[in-house]
């Protein structure tokens, strides 16, 4: 049976759509096959070279039961163009075109970032902070011997080994001449200290030496004496709130007991606290000024190293914790090995969880001056930004945490990529 006979026999019963033969050409499955092949090649049919000369298949006379192919059958068309090769995959940044156009109206971004980087690199501390200010306070009528000497020793370490700007003040009692209220006096001092150079690249340190306890309202107060009946007191919550609202990173150091509060909040930067203990009983086994002397010794030891690294507040707390047993054993040798002792307290709160602990950095050795066109290894980072507005403060925070070994920073751009 030929193809034409099959079409005539089963045309009426087939559910498929009827096929309309082309005029002047016999029905053949070859056109459908050619159509299927055409989908696999992107060339235009006009570019195809079709051999329309009749051919005689080799099996036209040798295969029984199989009809011979039609002489008018069209050969399978082949593409005349070159074969398409599989493209090599590249990263999005590498595949992006290299044509850039500066973003309009934000040329100041480049200048601001370069200024921030230059300020950090030119700082003698070579740290996150361009300067550090410390305020050391203790009670004027504190009768315990050695308090003033311990405070002056710590201030000397700040000034001599770290080149911090510091100020030592005595808190007047409410009964002293010229002071009607100790809380208002200290609030004014802390306010002025916080407002001065309240920027993200300045570190503030507040140190307190004295007594502290919880009053009848379960509020922490600073006291000039252990005798609550005659002691001058200052409610700490108001003072702490001033420090919480500052923009500068702030480190609070207390040679006293600190009673943590769940109300501690920080919106900008980092606020950290290191205290001698979290209990009033710490001075029963710990020397009154032992915390301050140990703190000064740890800072001095780090600064006198040949290649001093920055000392973070978290690391400083761990070092104090490790030497506490020895301090207690030296004070009470009759107790033998110390198995239970009060521990120093460390608290860190931040409005940005990505910010690390506060660092105290001694001045770095002076670096050799290089000519402006010096040669040296360079590293280039290309960053594709989102469409959101650029937050200069976040970028400045990132630059402040750049590692050591960077000599200079150059900012190019920002650009908008031109796609073709």
Report on the structure:
The protein is built from 11 helices and 13 strands. With 420 residues, the chain is α/β, with parallel strands linked by helices. The protein has a 6-stranded mixed β-sheet, with helices on both faces. The chain is elongated. The model is unreliable at 33-43, 55-60 and 86-90 (pLDDT under 50).
Radius of gyration: 41 Å
Backbone shape: elongated
**Unreliable segments of 5+ consecutive residues:** 33-43, 55-60, 86-90
What is the strand arrangement across the widest sheet? 3-2-4-8-9-11
CATH fold call of the largest domain: Rossmann fold
Q: Briefly note the structural class of the backbone.
A: alpha/beta
Report the order of strands and helices. HHHEHEHEHEEEEHEEHHEHEEHE
Mean pLDDT: 77
Terminus-to-terminus distance:
59 Å
Count the beta strands: 13
CATH architecture name of the largest domain: 3-Layer(aba) Sandwich
Number of domains: 3
What top-tier CATH class of the largest domain fits best? Answer: Alpha Beta
Q: What share of residues are in beta strands? A: 15-25%
**How would you sum up the major sheet?**
6 strands, mixed
- Give the % helix: 25-40%
Total helical elements? 11
């Amino acid at each position: 049976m030929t193809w034409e006979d099959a079409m005539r026999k089963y045309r009426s019963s087939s559910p498929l759509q009827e096929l309309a033969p082309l005029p002047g050409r016999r029905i053949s499955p070859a056109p459908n096959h050619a159509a299927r092949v055409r989908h696999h090649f992107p060339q235009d049919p006009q570019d195809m070279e079709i051999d329309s000369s009749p051919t005689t298949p080799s099996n036209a006379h040798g295969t029984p039961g199989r009809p011979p192919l039609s002489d008018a059958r069209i050969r399978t068309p082949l593409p005349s163009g070159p074969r398409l090769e599989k493209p090599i995959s590249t990263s999005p940044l590498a595949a992006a075109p290299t044509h850039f156009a500066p973003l309009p109206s934000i040329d100041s971004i480049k200048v601001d970032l370069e200024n921030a980087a230059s300020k950090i690199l030119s700082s003698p501390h070579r740290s996150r902070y361009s300067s550090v200010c410390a305020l050391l306070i203790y009670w004027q009528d504190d009768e315990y011997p050695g308090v003033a000497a311990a405070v002056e020793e710590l201030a000397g370490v700040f000034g001599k080994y770290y080149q911090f700007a510091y100020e030592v003040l005595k808190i007047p009692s409410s009964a002293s001449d010229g002071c009607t209220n100790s809380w208002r006096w200290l609030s004014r001092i802390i306010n002025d200290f916080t407002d001065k150079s309240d920027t993200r690249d300045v570190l503030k340190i507040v140190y307190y030496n004295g007594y502290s306890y919880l009053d009848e309202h379960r509020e922490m107060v600073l006291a000039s004496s252990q005798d609550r009946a005659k002691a001058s007191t200052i409610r700490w919550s108001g003072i702490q709130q001033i420090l919480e609202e500052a923009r500068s990173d702030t480190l609070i150091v207390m040679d006293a007991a600190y009673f943590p509060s769940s109300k501690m909040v920080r919106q900008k930067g980092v606020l950290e606290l290191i205290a001698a203990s979290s209990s009033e009983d710490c001075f029963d086994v710990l020397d009154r000024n032992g915390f301050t002397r140990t703190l000064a010794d740890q800072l001095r030891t780090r600064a006198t190293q040949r290649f001093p690294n920055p000392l973070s507040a978290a690391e400083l707390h761990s070092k104090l914790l490790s030497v506490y047993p020895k301090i207690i054993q030296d004070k009470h040798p009759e107790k033998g090995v110390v198995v239970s002792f009060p521990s120093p307290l460390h608290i860190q709160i931040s409005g940005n969880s990505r910010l690390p602990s506060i660092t105290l950095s001694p001045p770095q050795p002076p670096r050799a001056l290089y000519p402006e066109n010096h040669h040296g290894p360079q590293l280039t980072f290309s960053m594709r930004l989102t469409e959101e507005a650029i937050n200069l403060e976040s970028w400045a925070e990132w630059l402040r945490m750049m590692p050591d070994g960077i000599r200079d920073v150059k900012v190019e751009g920002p650009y908008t990529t031109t796609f073709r």
